[in-house]
Amino acid sequence: MACPIGLAPSLTAHLSPPGMGGIISTMPLRQRGLAKLLLVLSIGTSLACGRTPAQRGSIQLVDDAGDTLRLTAPARRVVSLIPAATELLFAIGADSAVVGRTSYCDYPAAAKAVPDLGDGIKPSIEAIVARRPDLVVLYNSGQNAAVAGRLRELGVPEIRLNTDALSDVGRVAELLGRVTGHQRAADSVTAVFDTALAAATRPARGTRPKVLLLVWEQPPMTIGRGSFLSELVERAGGENLFADVTASSGVVSIEAVAARNPDLIFTTTEGPSSFASRPEWQVVPAVREHRFLRVSGSEFNRPSPRAPAAIRQLAARLAGVDR
Amino acid sequence: MSAGRAVVLAAAVIVCVLLGLSAGAVPIPLREVWAGLWHADAGAAVIVRDLRAPRVVLAFLVGGSLGVCGAALQAMIRNPLAEPYLLGLSSGAGLGAVIAIASRAGGPWAVPIAAFLGALAAVALVYRLSLVSGRRLDPHVLLLSGVVVGSFAGALMSAIMVLSDAPGVRNAFLWLLGGFGAASWRALAVFTVYASIPLLVLLYHARSLDLIALGDEPAHHLGAEVDRVRRVVYLSTALLTAASVATCGIIGFVGLVVPHTVRILFRPLHRSLLPLVFLVGGCFLVLADVVARTAVRPLELPVGVITALIGVPLFALLLRRTLT
Fold it and tell me: Which of A90, A242, B7, B307 falls 20 to 30 Å from A82 in CA-CA distance?
């Protein structure tokens, strides 16, 4: 039975412990590589300005995998392998520094002009190195830990980031601002985002429409509390039908859906398409009555500065729900 | 089989079915289950009638079918490790499902139908490869063909999963891991009509299987048409398993362990082994499905995970008790 090979890698990406990088980071080879790099860089900068990096105020930060990144100067050639990070780099005006992206980095449109290095999970190290980056931004998942270790061995600085929730937008914007030297722009992006988010958020009062977040149909999969889409719906004045699910996503039964009786079923264009015509779904009144909330657009895929606009769009649809 | 045993088995079937109707994401007391079954306006009617009843019956039929397939294959190949998915079927079905998802095939039945066609293609290939000198189906060649065809389909499936950019192609594995969440009266009706034919064919050949289990030579001398029985049994089990994969994904372990358990407990001939395995397999899968939908409410676990988690320790206990 060949079935369990690579069981749902998209799920395991979320489930893998992020600590794998710790093992690799203790490897002496990597340290040697990094030391060599620091040496080369410090010689370079001391020759250039006659000062040591420490005096110049080198950049130092701890990434979401717990590794420390040290840069002697702002990154000028960034390979960004997270769509949310690419979007933020463009937002803070670091667009000219982006020299590599994932196939999914589709916003803003100008990002598509940057060379495409694949899907971002377990990326090709050769393709990354060929872009001669001075910083690689990776998604913080277990599958990327080995890539991060290998990059450090090769002397290529990398950071791994979580970009899963609305609270990550400002945090990651600030972080990217620091490493690229666009701190002021990052501050203003964050301030504008926080204000817009607060303005778009509906107060949680009274009975709210219950929304089933259906992300896959066979088997029916939904999104749990605290995940990005769940946050959007809650802030738009709706209620996640499965807010009691703490996992980021999970398979639910149609029976549980029927018993909880959603007012609206949320789907994306990449997700469920034909479940509504299957007989077993007809027990759910929202399916019979075609109460669907179908969205398209990458602002619903990832936390970004566009999230407040996404919330307003959802709120307009939720306000029209007849309860 | 004694009358006492028959009563015990019948009681077990009834208890399992009632439990299956009562337990779930929303627990429903038996009294309400009863009301829901017979009165359309009862509170629990929608869940009990339209969702749970077809689900429980389907789980029973699939469990029984997988058990019978495993028992027949073990006798026919004379190998205790034989099970319904051994012969390349699961990978063929998986390949079909992945192709359907990757090519964004529309329609509510695209994935199950593609899985069914994939399984049939694998069966046809394995069958053709195993026919030695025209008409003989050699069990050893059959096993090897099954394994290589399975590997080949598995490799194609992995390649498509890596290369496809279709959203959700990785979720194909979740579908394949099995479950009865998509059960409906329509799916049940289709499966029942289809499955009854290979099931009856297998029951009809039970005596020949008893003979083949003795060895080809004695079976031949006792009047069994060994080659013909092998072909018929293989094709029947393959068609039955393909339908069950299309209906509810790959549910391992039932076809392997239920026949052995029944053999250890009852030591019957195949004439009574096959019906017994059908009942025990049905009960086992209904119970496993109950656990799958109640263990982490409101989420569901793949039922194949449960069959292994419950089945393996039970079977290990049984084996030790028999050996000592």
Answer: A242
